Structures are given as structure tokens and as C-alpha cells.
Amino acid sequence: MDPNSYKEFLAQRRQEIIQKVHDACQRSGRSAEDVDIYAVSKTVGVPQVIQAMEAGYTHFAENRPQELVRKLSEFQEQGINPPPFDMIGNLQKNKINAVLGTAARIQSVSSVHLAEAISARATEKNLVVPVLFEVNVSGESTKSGFAPEELAQWMERLLDLEGIEPQGLMTMAPAHEPAEDRVTFRGLRELRDSLETNTAASLPVLSCGMSDDFEMAIEEGATLVRLGRIVFDPQYTPASD
Ligand SMILES: *Cc1c(COP(=O)(O)O)cnc(C)c1O
Description:
45% of the residues lie in helices and 15% in strands. It is an alpha/beta fold and 241 residues long. The chain has one domain (3-232): TIM Barrel. The protein has an eight-stranded parallel beta sheet. The radius of gyration is 18 Å and the shape is globular. Pyridoxal-5'-phosphate is lined by residues 40, 42, 63, 88-89, 172, 210-212, 226-230. It comes from Muricaecibacterium torontonense.
């Protein structure tokens, strides 16, 4: 697709997404200002990210540390200020240094071990990294993340860690099971509410909802939706509901 028509596509699709966010907020008595749209750019390159910025997107996310760092250095080489990129994918300990100081936030802090390792390295570097705790709400064995009761059990300890600033929770809905999606998103919000009631935690950010289920996620309280295909892929058609 030629660059101009791709840019037009991005801008028009963005208006459609904003409308859907707005409608979902209205259905659930929320304000559209309370929902941040993150463009997940893992399938596209820096030129497309720049076009997306021109189309109005301000926040981006990547699921692989190497690719996040690579995109940032490409921005630097071109002398362009990069937008903030959140890290949203599986993070191995040997990649922590790569994302410290580069990722705007780490949404995928999926275990106490990982939180402690990030804390130690961030403290060495005199950094405080905003983080979300990734929760495996649906309990699928293939999925990473804290079990809800595990997070509840460790919350005070996690709040004491230096070098990280917990801002909220993140989850992924189970694939191919729309009925389970809503239960998952609701479970994330209820877990957040109970953590705030039972500990000193303040966890305003709820990151859930992707291209196929973000409207439902918003109805259930999402404050941050992570959208990939629906933002960047002209071929993408939302599943009918
Ligand atoms: C790819 C990805 C997304 C976006 O998924 P789409 O279905 O393309 O919207 C969201 N979150 C994570 C963690 C991802 O890896």
C-alpha cells in the first residue's frame, strides 16, 4: 500500500476505534477519557509507527525486548523523538537491562522473582520503573502471570521493593472463548479492588483488551487497551458479535 493511503487508513481506523471506545464507555457509564489506547506495533516497522503517530496515536507497546530496543535506536538514528513504548511481552531476566531506561513501563511483571530482579537492577541504575503486574486470571497452564491469590499473598512485599512503581494490573483473555473473556476482565478488576481494600496498594491501571475484545474489556473496567491488528492491519475485520 502506498504511504499516503496507509496513513489515511490509519487515521480513519483510529476514528472508528475512538468511536467504539466512546460507545463502550457510554454503555458502562464511564468516561472515554479514562481509557488509554496503546498501539501494539510488533508487526510493523518504524515507518508505520511514525505514520501512526501522524494519525494521532501517542502510546505504543512491544512484546519483545530486542524489537523495542531496535525500534528506539532506529528513531534515534533518524533524529526523531520516539514515542513511549511499553513492554508487554514475556520478559526473561537476561533481558531486564535492555528494557530498563528504554521501556516507558513494564506491563508484564509476571512473578515475584522477576519483580525482585527488576527492582535490583533498577536500583543499581538509580531508576524507578513503572510496572504492572501480569495476572493469569483464567488459570490456563500455558499462560504466564501471577495467580490471583499469589499476588494477594505477595502484594505487601512487592509494594516494598525499591526501583519499581506498581501502577496496576495487566491480563490476557483466554483465546477463542468470548464468554470466558468477560469473566477474565471482571476478575482482574475485582482482584484490583480487593488488593486496594486489603493492602496499601493503589492500582489505577487495568490493562486488558486487544483487537477482538477491547469493547468488552472497557465495559468491565479496562483503563488501557492494547490494540495491534485493528490499528495497523487494513485486512483486519472485527469479529461480529
Ligand atoms: C500482540 C499483542 C497485543 C495486541 O493483539 P491484537 O489482537 O493484534 O490487538 C496485545 N497484548 C499483547 C501482550 C500482545 O502480545
